[in-house]
Amino acid sequence: MRFSPSDLRSLTVFRALVEHGGFLGTQLALGMSQSTVSFHLRALEERLGFDLCQRGRKGFVLTERGQAVYDGSKSLVASISAFEGVLGELHHKVVGTLRVGMVDNTITDPRFDFPSVIKQCVRNSPDVEIKLTVSSPDVLMAQVATGGLDLAVIPRLDIPDGFDQILFHEEMNSLYCGHLHPLFKAKPTRAEIEASEFVVRPYANNRELHFFRKAPVRAHATNMEAQAAFILSGEFLGYLPEHYANHWVERRQMRALMSPETRIVRPFVIVTKSDTPSSPLQRLFIRGLVAEGVHAQDGRLAAAAQAVFNTAPQEKLAGRRNKSKKSI
Questions:
Q1: In three state form, how does the secondary structure of 261-306 look?
Q2: Which of 8, 40, 184, 282 could pair with 13 in a Cys bridge, judged by C-beta atoms 3.0 to 4.6 Å apart?
Q3: Distance between CA 305 and CA 288 in Å, rounded?
Q4: What stretches of the chain adopt beta strand conformation (E)?
């Protein structure tokens, strides 16, 4: 069969159904009524000649063929975006859509002005569209792996083969205690801290216990806001980025313990797939991120990030996987 423009519109709705887990999320995301969403889904199924999903009391569940269509559509979306980039280059313009993933609660970091990167990219290229997804590092990595995102900005993890990364930023994290915790008004020893219950983020692989390896872990948080909620409960100690915790520190609802001696420096990286050529738009955005890192960081990290970026200005700009590995 040959795809028509109406088929592409229906495919867009189907992709939204998959990514939002059903009709309600899709209606809210696309601003469509349930009947309109259903119309596009039925139209696509009729064109393809098979069911894409099962819907009923058990919710929205993809069929095996539906999963194959969704997986195949990722390369189609990437190809369309790449083609837009080619057309833009022919007109000496940067155009297209860039899908960026970002971890939560970076916006309060004065040493990383991410909004400025967006501003410069949009002003320099008024014909571009940027789609920003905020989630946990593991979710963002999965979306980069499957082609749902072009790049992700995350704390550095143990990244498997098939990905490239640029180290470009460092975030300072300290151990915090909520004002309802017994240690809040005390001067605790390392042993007293290590005897307290901790909350950690699973994706950090217990790096937050680097200085307190014997501490009991009773709670897990998938993002910074959840981590802060556990700490504010007065039942747990936990690490937070210093720029994020300052909101509660200034209100005397939190305080740092044994800082800076137990501070953790968390490197941030730009992650892309090794086997996917970078578009002009992607290169422009990465250049802005690296420039922001160069502007904000010390000379060692700035030089490393700039060197990695400058090694392949016309190729994949994600520094060879093992070149930028430093940190705790």
A1: CCCEEEEEEEEEECCCCCCHHHHHHHHHHHHHHHHHCCHHHHHHHH
A2: 40
A3: 12
A4: 53-56, 59-62, 96-102, 128-134, 151-155, 163-178, 198-200, 217-220, 237-241, 254-257, 264-273
Strand 163-178 relative to strand 128-134, pairing: unpaired
Q: What are the tokens at 71? A: 């997986």
Cβ pair 255, 185 in contact under 8 A: no
* C-alpha to C-alpha distances, 83 to 33, 79, 96, 245, 278, nearest whole angstrom: 31, 6, 8, 43, 12
The C-alpha atoms of residue 77 and residue 72 are separated, in whole angstroms, by 9
CA distance 188 to 186: 6
Q: 244 with 108: CB under 8 angstroms?
A: yes
Question: 42 and 78 in contact (C-beta within 8 Å)?
Answer: no
Would you call 187 helix, strand, or coil by DSSP?
Answer: coil
pLDDT, average across residues 270-285: 84
Give residue 94's identity as a one-letter amino acid code: V
The DSSP 8-state label assigned to residue 157 in this structure reads: -
**Residue scoring higher pLDDT (180 or 159):** 180
Per residue in 123-172, pLDDT (tens digit) is: 887 778 888 999 888 888 888 887 778 899 999 888 778 899 888 889 99
> CB within 8 A of 316, min separation 6: which ones?
164, 272, 274, 276, 277, 278
Cβ atoms 240, 173 nearer than 8 A: yes
Query: What are the structure tokens assigned to 178, written together?
Result: 């909520």
Q: Which of 27, 200, 223, 197 is nearest to 106 (CA)?
A: 223
